[in-house]
């Protein structure tokens, strides 16, 4: 199995021509009766060796974290800075071989997350070691400020990792850290405001929309989905989806355990709107992210109408059938949706045609 990254590398190395790579993409698109852009490729596995290396890497990282946690420098309940530092150091060292030299996809993702997460945990451990517990007790503003600082260090770690390894998910990891910085600073500024949770949900929604627009910027630079920029956009969309979906449904009160018929209808209408957006931009992340809320809302709706025992089964049947039908006719549905959009917007979206255009310059 050859990924888009492998084709790019082969063209860059002169092993095949750009025209030959485009011909191969067209052949695959014709054989599958679907445009290459509609496949929404992103590199995850190149073979079972990816899984083998990933399992071994996770075991090694867990071992280094455990050893680091055994070196106590603060309260036993707080993370040791050595745990995060050891994990981050091990992840960087492994990435030098498995990411930079071997270019293995799944291990690279795991090592990136371990590195950024390790830096974040190390920062928390350092803060716990030098700041007395009495200064943190009943001081939400100060705790939020410390969390923002730790997230800022994680964002800097993601930027450093991107400069060295260029793993597509790194941009999303850095964006998530920056969202954490912003939310931490806002929570610190607001202090113990009574409706803090609602305000934070509102800001999370705003930041989710910002991440979505950032993802669209990456997507619009590669509408044919043939370069690393498309992979970066994929992970950003995967990040933006829960940041948009969770605040919207939480503000509707779906987390309180009661769903009225009106709220269930609103959820379904929102999901239809997300489906329209997903079709237009050719990204399925929004649909997957909101799935749990829709299942819960529909299940409650069936239950209210008397189908108590079969409520979840009926919900799963309806949603599963709808998503499978959408997947089977994704190309036709996309063409109909894109045709209704303004021409200036259509030019920035992936084409809904069968042909594959020549590979753009990276």
Question: Can you tell me about this structure?
Answer:
The two termini are 22 Å apart. The longest helix is centred in the first third of the chain and has 26 residues, at 105-130. The protein has one domain. It has helices at 4-13, 18-32, 48-69, 81-98, 105-130, 133-136, 140-165, 169-190, 196-220, 228-251, 261-281, 285-289, 291-304, 311-328, 330-339, 343-346. Helices cover 73% and strands 0% of the residues.
What about the largest sheet? none
- Say how many strands there are: 0
Radius of gyration from CA coordinates: 23 Å
Low-confidence stretches: 354-362
Name the shape in a single word: globular
Helix content: over 70%
What is the element string, with H for helices and E for strands?
Answer: HHHHHHHHHHHHHHHH
Distance between the termini: 22 Å
**Beta-strand percentage?**
under 5%
Mean pLDDT, all residues = 84
**Structural class by helix and strand composition:** mainly alpha
Number of helices: 16
Instruction: Count structural domains.
Output: 1
Give me some keywords for this one.
362 residues; mainly alpha; 16 helices; 73% helix; disordered C terminus
Please render the helix and strand layout as text.
Layout: H1 4-13, H2 18-32, H3 48-69, H4 81-98, H5 105-130, H6 133-136, H7 140-165, H8 169-190, H9 196-220, H10 228-251, H11 261-281, H12 285-289, H13 291-304, H14 311-328, H15 330-339, H16 343-346
Helix pairs in contact: 3-4, 3-5, 4-5, 5-7, 7-8, 8-9, 8-10, 9-10, 11-13, 13-14
